[in-house]
Design goal:
The chain is mainly alpha-helical. The chain has helices spanning about 1-5, 25-40, 50-55, 60-65, 70-90, 100-110, 125-135, 145-150, 155-170, 175-195, 210-225.
């Protein structure tokens, strides 16, 4: 299985980058060290100049891969959600029972992230830290509608759609599957943000509480719909 996965690539809309960073050692170092730098300092303080110094290369070399740091952040978010989709498919594909498949999906999408050796140059834990802290920043721009038309967020939207289909399969009569799916994905990140920065605003502070909360939220919702 590991031999089959070692050449796996997360496919991202080519409009997000100038040159695919997965295609070269330099591109992979840009992504690898960019993740570390943003995770350490935050996106506001991140610059291509600082990243160039970190990788021992000219700032101009980074611009050969990414037009600006906004598109770099979109790339990182897209990679993260593509990785989550890959894990979701891998972990649920063999489960026939819709309720058990949904339960496993919730585990995959809301559990604490651990490093994945399949992608050697990506620190998934640090990347998760970025997505938790910067989740809405790729969307909060005046260009969001145009970027959406150009497919910048297709990976995220596809994951929401796939998760929504699992909810619908579990309870076909529930009319808000996509709304529930997108709410769970965003709210899961927000609960981790609260846990890290505002622990007095969340009850999801103990190990396992995070997953339990979202299982109860989703299954109580679909069960109530099924009983109506």
């Amino acid at each position: 299985m590991q031999d089959l996965l070692k050449n796996l690539r997360i496919v991202i809309n080519p409009k997000v980058f100038v040159k695919d960073p997965q295609s070269s050692d330099l591109g992979q170092r840009i992504v690898e060290q960019g993740i570390q730098l943003i995770s350490e300092t935050g996106f506001e303080r991140f610059t291509f100049r600082k990243l160039g110094e970190r990788i021992g290369s000219n700032e101009s070399s980074i611009y050969r891969y990414f037009e600006n740091k906004h598109k770099f952040l979109i790339y990182l978010n897209s990679w993260y959600w593509g990785w989550m989709e890959y894990r979701l498919v891998l972990m649920t594909n063999s489960i026939a029972d819709p309720r058990k498949r949904l339960d496993k999906a919730l585990e995959v999408l809301t559990q604490k992230v651990e490093a994945d050796p399949t992608f050697a140059y990506i620190d998934e834990v640090a990347l998760n830290n970025i997505v938790v802290n910067e989740h809405f920043k790729p969307f909060l721009t005046a260009e969001v509608d145009q970027e959406n038309k150009e497919g910048y967020f297709e990976v995220y939207k596809r994951l929401v759609g796939r998760f929504g289909q699992m909810i619908s399969a579990c309870c076909p009569q529930y009319p808000y599957a996509l709304s529930l799916a997108s709410t769970v994905l965003s709210s899961s990140l927000h609960q981790y943000f609260l846990q890290a920065h505002f622990p007095s605003l969340t009850d999801c502070t103990d190990p396992g509480a995070h997953g339990t909360f979202f299982r109860q939220l989703v299954f109580s919702t679909v069960t109530a719909a099924a009983n109506d």
